[in-house]
Amino acid sequence: xxxxxxxxxxxxxxxxxxxxxxxxxxxxxxxxxxxxxxxxxxxxxxxxxxxxxxxxxxxxxxxxxxxxxxxxxxxxxxxxxxxxxxxxxxxxxxxxxxxxxxxxxxxxxxxxxxxxxxxxxxxxxxxxxxxxxxxxxxxxxxxxxxxxxxxxxxxxxxxxxxxxxxxxxxxxxxxxxxxxxxxxxxxxxxxxxxxxxxxxxxxxxxxxxxxxxx
Amino acid sequence: xxxxxxxxxxxxxxxxxxxxxxxxxxxxxxxxxxxxxxxxxxxxxxxxxxxxxxxxxxxxxxxxxxxxxxxxxxxxxxxxxxxxxxxxxxxxxxxxxxxxxxxxxxxxxxxxxxxxxxxxxxxxxxxxxxxxxxxxxxxxxxxxxxxxxxxxxxxxxxxxxxxxxxxxxxxxxxxxxxxxxx
Lengths: 214, 182
Fold this sequence. Notes:
The complex is a heterodimer.
Chain A: H1 2-11, H2 21-45, H3 51-54, H4 59-81, H5 89-111, H6 115-123, H7 129-150, H8 157-176, H9 185-210
Chain B: H1 5-17, H2 21-43, H3 51-64, H4 75-93, H5 108-111, H6 117-128, H7 132-143, H8 148-154, H9 159-177
Helix pairs in contact in B: 1-2, 2-3, 3-4, 7-8, 7-9, 8-9
């Protein structure tokens, strides 16, 4: 029977499977994508002029930590969703938890502010640009991540695409923090989150189209 | 009796991942039997001729993407997810939007190898009427998904002898369950 011949052919001279290809592949994309985003921030958007001073304050680190944890959540979800039957629950929960923390902290900050100053605190000077830039920075990373995913075997394509978008958005937002001079938690909780959410949504929409494998 | 399919296949898979060809051959052989049953049932009478193609395509995917198997996870769930994905892909390529149920009962790919309760009793009664070696052959090949050679080896028979014996056993079973008088 044909199928038995196929089985013979596949099991003859079988090379050992290379363990760790999935995490290695995704980390590779993270490093390459992170460098691209960093290069774009430096040569296109420009580093914030007070970067050295900002390193001594908490806000730069809050932004970086928030964005990096979102990227980590995306990574953990992807590492599972790249495999048949993987659900990626842990990564999604992690991203959801840090989002809630930031939203709560942002709300508290707004409530502690005199009403007249709340709008400025929340919108900063770049509320319209911030999510768009994060999305744009995420695009090359998202493309690379989706291409890498195709080598693996995701079976939940929309979820896997969404995880790729979350991951790309998180990495992009981490780099964007080096450009963004905003100083309120409420700003980051809203506009960074929106940028990453756009990237996540785009990934989830593209997933079923782009991730189909044979 | 065959509830040990997961540990058995997982052990084989681990050896295969280390480059053990015969172990991989056994995994693919079991999958071939299981997938054929699964796809036959799911595709329905109109697409019976396409079952073998779909099985081969799925075995190829299992082979090419075996590095996505994580040893901390159940092997049966991994293989079932690929089979189900291939089934969904099969319908999509034909432009059919069809719901493929995600069976949470320990994966349908495996579950019908474990008939339970009433069916099991009937099966035992039916198979119990056969000579012991024939019964073991039928169980090995038709229920556990072993190849003829493997099932024969267990009983110390050649593949040819096993084939003849299995044929006789199935004939005897058919005679038993066939309606009488016509």
